[in-house]
UniProtKB/TrEMBL annotation:
Entry-linked PANTHER family: PROTEIN AST1-RELATED
UniProt-recorded name of the protein: NADP-dependent oxidoreductase
Family matches, as SUPFAM superfamilies: GroES-like (SSF50129), NAD(P)-binding Rossmann-fold domains (SSF51735)
One Pfam family hit: ADH_zinc_N_2
Matching SMART domains: PKS_ER
Organism: Rhizobium laguerreae
InterPro entries according to UniProt: ADH-like_N, ER, GroES-like_sf, Lipid_raft_assoc_Zn_ADH, NAD(P)-bd_dom_sf
Span of the signal peptide: none
The Enoyl reductase (ER) domain, residue ranges: 1-270
Amino acid sequence: VFPLILGTDVSGVVAAVGEDVSGFKVGDEVFAMVRFPEYVMKGSGAYAEYVRVSASEVAIKPSGIEHIQAGGAPMSLLTAWQFLVELGHDAPNPFQSFPHAPIPLDRKIVVINGAGGGVGHLAVQVAKWKGARVIAVASGKHEALLRELGADQFIDYTTTSVEAAVQDVDLVIDAVGGPNMERFLRVLKRGGALYLVNPLGFSGHEEAARREITVSSTQVRSNGAHLAEAGRLLDDGTIRVVIDSVYPLAEASAAHQRASHGRIQGKIVLSVV
């Protein structure tokens, strides 16, 4: 419904608190994903100088990072966290009849497709933190960064297909979506799992069932407690947010044009200062 204000992720300073709020005070530096997915069609309102946010969606910004990095974190970090660590809610799953359930990753082999993007580069780091051996899939320009972030193996999809390069892995997380997601089934061992960040268009359920592969997705949801947990990893440098580019808020349209061109490394951030 128009007019609406776009954006979901924020990092800033608390200007006022509600009467019943006890966990935060004026002057606190905080970050959050705002009212998602409840307000996805209305506009969550993050492209603004002031944003009203539920206290349950907010966490104290890690002191070890700046607002630019914190502002780029929430949606992508929560997506990686809720897919790989803890779902954290019992809301109905819009993509499937069963709740998503992260599998243990210690000593597992994990392929991350789209590893150079916003969700992907954080998923690489979260999976490494959980003890996995990580195989990152992206274009060649991302290789140095992803190895720096902890990837044990790198596949340049522009020269090598994933299914030709690896087999018998425990988990594939596809952060890209699009056509032919079914190809990842050929990479997985029997009993493995395929996590689809964008599952729309996947048509391999019958093949997955024959091979006893769990195909699962979930809708990321605002969660201040999860941000607080993950924030400790941002604070001590265990994981970091890579920033592709920064635009003034007044140039939001240019930021969207940058996003539409693809080949983003990390996150695009809007600054209001």
